[in-house]
Amino acid sequence: MYTWMWTLLVLSLGLGHAQRSTQEAFMMQYFERRIAQLEERLIKCEQNTQQVDQKIYDLSTKVRGQLASMEVHRTEVKTQVDNVAMRMERVERDVEYLENKTPNQPHIEVEEALMEQQMKDTQKKIVKITLGTDCNIALTGVKSLKIVKKAGDVYGSWLKDPTKGSAKIYFFSGNKNNTVLEFKSLKTFTEGRLAQAHPIQLPFPWQGTGHVVYNGFLYYHRADTPNQILKVHLLNRTVADSMLLPGVGRLPTYALTTHTFLDLAVDELGLWVIYSDPEFGGNLVITKLDKSSLAVEHTWDTTCTSRDAESAFMICGTLYVVYNSRYGGRSSIQCLYDIHDTIHSEESPVLFFPKRYTNHYSMHYHPKDKQLYAWDDGYQTIYKVDLKSKAEV
Ligand SMILES: *[C@@H]1O[C@H](CO)[C@@H](O)[C@H](O)[C@H]1NC(C)=O
Ligand SMILES: *[C@@H]1O[C@H](CO)[C@@H](O)[C@H](O)[C@H]1NC(C)=O
């Protein structure tokens, strides 16, 4: 376009040379000025385009660079996550191995230990007489798992009434409520919706996951009290009895189930409370309760820690404590405490639950069914257990 304009100008200059007048000279000046202006604008325009081009180029280089580094970052994070997962699994396995290998007996002064042992033996003899020794079974394995339902909250508990001839199921969703749902049978519970259950409104709300039903009564931790246990008649919802259990309420029973401050349990021998006492280094304490008058019969300080524990249950006067990790893993029974002193934790193998990543917030043993009714992260599951006579263990 430039050259064309110049040619035109030169031509017109050549033609009008003879009759040049002041007017023409003026015109010429005007044209020159115009052209100079146009040129200037053109140059500016070109420069602008170049700048914009440069900017776009810079930007795209930057974006490409960032994309590349993001990709690198993503790969790094993924590798790290994989590594951590692998390491965790390895540590878990190592810990299991070590705990199987090392006897966890602390060195204590022999004389003192002997004295203590003698005292305990005497105590145990007395207890044996009062409780009877006809109950003689021990847990040897957790056999199979059946997930029967997924309902309610992440936390909760459910149980089958252990009363002879009863098939009723009780369902406690969450950590605190004044309602318990009652189902006629396991079948109605499994197949039905929660709305079809019979809701029972209690005179006071319950707390935690350690409730128990026994002979038509519900025993539970009254919410917003540190240590009150209520015995409520399920038919007319009246409080039949209540008690305060000293030492309870300052620590959760199990470190991994933080809303449960007392865990009630039923076994072949009767009604129990499991709790954690800070006076006793956070170890678990078990108390046998008289179920009719709700009075303490006897208390045992166990050798099982509440640290990393998620749940526990009683079978035949033996406490079995279930441990896990905070992030959910494979649950295992790593500590037991036998009030009859027949089986011992250090001689018993670690018992694993069927492989599945779990967080058990409650477990209830049913003495007649020989099953555990467990609440696993909002799933209601049943574990069959293997039992043997204590003499064979
Ligand atoms: C109490 O339980 C009932 C029945 O399971 C449920 O509908 C309700 O949401 C619960 N309330 C709280 C506060 O969790
Ligand atoms: C509730 O029922 C039980 C058992 O039938 C009975 O012993 C008790 O007196 C009843 N309580 C009230 C207040 O009706």
Automatic annotation (TrEMBL):
Main localization (coarse): secreted
Coiled-coil zones: 28-55
Gene Ontology, cellular component aspect: extracellular space
Domain Olfactomedin-like: 134-389
Key words, A-Z: Coiled coil, Secreted, Signal
Signal peptide: 1-18
Pfam families tied to this protein: OLF (PF02191)
UniProt-listed GO biological process terms: signal transduction
Location relative to the cell: Secreted
Name of the protein this chain belongs to: Olfactomedin-like domain-containing protein
Native source species: Oncorhynchus tshawytscha (Chinook salmon)
